[in-house]
Amino acid sequence: MYKLNDRLKGFYCLRCGKKFDIDDYFTGCSFCSADSFPVSLAPYYKGSCKIKNNKKRMLRYGNFLPYLEFPSLGEGGTPLIEAHRLAEKYNLKSLYIKNEFQNPTGSHKDRMSPFIIARVLEINRKIISVASSGNAGVSLAAYSALAGLKCKVISQRNMNPIWKRAIETTGAEIIYTKTSQGRWDYMKEKVEKEDWYPATNYITPPIGSNPFGVEGYKTISYEIYEDLQGELPDWILIPTSRGGLLWGIYKGFKDLEDMKKIEKFPRLIAVEPIERIQRVLKGADYRENFPGDYALTPSIGGTTVTYQSIEAIKNSKGCAISVLQKKVYDNIKELSSSGLYLESSSATLIGSLKKLLKQGVISKNDCVVMIATSSGYKDFPKV
Ligand SMILES: Cc1ncc(COP(=O)(O)O)c(C=O)c1O
Ligand SMILES: [Zn+2]
Asked: Cβ(210) to ligand 1 under 6 A?
């Protein structure tokens, strides 16, 4: 049994600010959703705390997270690699790559899964469910296996066989639905009628993933802060789908700001396959559908935007950017020839950086961090 952090006092709505008791809010803020604005809730804490110096990797930060301890496969503590050659090529002061593919199942999702498992064990639920085309499914399947819990991954038939095998060998069950929307409809029914515990969204328009889990992403910001010894980057580029990672990184830096550890706030840039967030930032309603081609970058695919993504970008004075699908293989090659073989969705980081330099958004002499969310070893080649 894992113990809730005493500092955790409840949840707040990202949009209306209303406060809620500690509980599970699978569909976000009830007040905002009654007005047809689906929005996630996020935990808030009171009082100060310290890093646990006797622990390693993500466990060091337990005092800042919903659970003081949690089931661990050794997640977190990923390296911040200085990419000298790329920095020189693009005239940047410095360019760092936060290598999230060194997490136990090969993606940043391993920072989210432990808190979902800890929550499920605490409230004695039996089945974890996740709607995922890949990385979240692989991660939750592994952490469920670690804890001896049942995991149901809801996906589609065209799922990458590398992910399929990684999930099935843990003992998790994959359920296939005909459409992407069908995954959420199926999950909704199981959550409402059979008490499945949802790790990811199932409502339309969507909200972010389970808020206990999303908190884990804050540790990426803490680690960047520690590795750069307070010298924060000007920009952080983040491959984005539902924006859990983006929001978590924002919240981590907000913690550091509230603790008066930082004065400068890194500006967060969402890297997306099609113009979704970009259109919302130009005035479109975040609840709209934004169709487009994202076939080569399924991990950051989808036609929707979440409120949390917009909030993280606005609050950090950031922006969003996308690269054309036809550039994806060039992006993979360019990073790989610098030693970093990334999953297609992550490789678009380099195309985005180039575009932002060309647009004059990022300037020569800036310090940039890119979050490499997953490795190319997971990609099923299509050419
Ligand atoms: C490789 C990769 N990068 C980025 C993301 C985006 O994460 P989020 O949905 O938290 O925006 C995902 C998953 O959704 C992913 O699998
Ligand atoms: Zn609200």
From this structure: no
CATH 3.40.50.300 describes domain 80-107+213-378: no
Chain position carrying tokens 């949390």: 308
Q: Domain boundaries in the chain?
A: 80-107+213-378
pLDDT tens digits for range 55-110: 999 999 999 999 999 999 999 999 999 999 999 999 999 999 999 999 999 999 99
For residue 249, which ligand has an atom nearest its CA?
1
Starting at the earlier edge strand, list the strands of the sheet with 197-198.
173-177, 150-156, 127-131, 197-198
Instruction: Kindly give the distance from the C-alpha atom of residue 61 to the centroid of ligand 1, in angstroms, as a whole number.
Output: 22
Contact 188 CB / ligand 1 (< 6 Å): no
In this structure, the number of other CB atoms found within 10 A of the CB of residue 261 comes to: 13
Answer whether 235's CB lies under 8 Å from 362's CB: yes
> Is the pTM value of this prediction over 0.90?
yes
A 10 A CB-CB count for 145 gives 17
- List the strands of the sheet with 319-322, edge to edge: 80-82, 94-99, 367-372, 235-239, 267-272, 319-322
Residues shown for the chain: 383
State how far the Cα of 147 lies from the Cα of 143, in Å rounded to an integer: 6
Q: How far apart are CA 173 and CA 152, in angstroms?
A: 5
Question: Rounded distance, CA 58 to CA 32, Å?
Answer: 33
